[in-house]
Amino acid sequence: MTGMEIAVVALVVSVASCLQGAIGFGLGLLAAPVIALFDPTLLPGSIVLVAAGLTVLGVLRDRAAVDVKDASWAVLGQVPGTVAGALLVAALPARTLALVLAGTVLLAVLLSVCGWQPRPRPATVAAAGAASGLLGTATSIGGPPMALVWHGSSRARMRGTMSAFFLFGTLLSLTALTAVGSIDRRTLVFAAVLLPAMVLGFAASGAVNTRINRRIVRRVGLGASTLGAVLVLLQAL
Fold first, then answer.
1. Mean pLDDT across the stretch 53-67?
2. Can you tell me the distance from the alpha carbon of 130 to that of 75, in angstroms, rounded to the nearest whole number?
3. Considering only CA atoms, which of 132, 189, 197 is closest in space to residue 165?
4. Distances in Å between the alpha carbon of 151 and those of 24, 136, 170, 195?
5. Are 137 and 177 in contact (CB under 8 A)?
6. Cis before 120? omega within 30
7. Total structural domains within the chain
8. CB of 214 within 8 A of CB of 22?
9. Coil, strand or helix: which one is 44?
10. pLDDT given for residue 54 in this prediction
11. Helix extents (H) in 92-184
């Protein structure tokens, strides 16, 4: 990547980290399509690495609101989903993964706009965890399935529970991706470059949580994600 491209990605990661800090998810949904435009070979590893740091910050801030029972059911499904996602990364070329990523983003946006919301029963939460593990490992976008089942929770509970779930998930994904050889030196260096932008975005989310309507933040995130996915599709096709 050129210096300008890295600066653009860092800006998007900062905004995406702010979005995730405000509503519980959004880093991969917003940042992954932009990285895919410049260098899809850096996905999903770079975003999963950045997400690991972001989820640690989220758990520390919202630890009192974590729903341990719900998070446990989600993790139960997450493990096999993560293994399946790692196998997809090892088997599919970068162009195909970019198409899968774009399709995942557009499907997530469509479900969100349509207002579909399954009831958060144990079986449903476990199934969402499996989908999140697969998508999060294969495309770095694991938030939408969990957001659908936990959408009715309070803001703090949703942020805290999703952060706890994603913390376990990112560590699991990193282990699986390393096992299939998808985490290399380039990926580690690129993720390290993006860490300051992530921290800055998360810090800004505190002000967003108290001053800006959650619905507005969500609409901006969905709009930006849709644009990014469309651009990835056009480039890949």
1. 91
2. 8
3. 132
4. 10, 18, 21, 28
5. yes
6. no
7. 1
8. yes
9. coil
10. 95
11. 94-114, 122-139, 143-149, 155-179
pLDDT in tens, 146-163: 877 887 777 778 888 988
Question: What's the pLDDT at 35?
Answer: 93
Instruction: Return the amino acid letter for 87.
Output: L
Q: What is the pTM of this model?
A: 0.80
Residue partners of 84: CB distance under 8 A and separation at least 6: 133, 134, 137, 138
In the chain the beta strands, taken as DSSP E runs, fall at: none
Question: ∠150-122-113 over CA atoms, to 5°?
Answer: 30
What confidence category does residue 113 fall into, taking pLDDT thresholds of 50, 70 and 90?
confident
**Residue-number span of the structural domain to which 226 is assigned:** 3-236
Are 119 and 95 within 8 A, CB to CB? Answer: no
C-alpha torsion angle, residues 224, 228, 230, 235 (rounded to 10): 160
The position carrying tokens 């790692």 is 86
Q: What is the pLDDT of residue 224?
A: 64
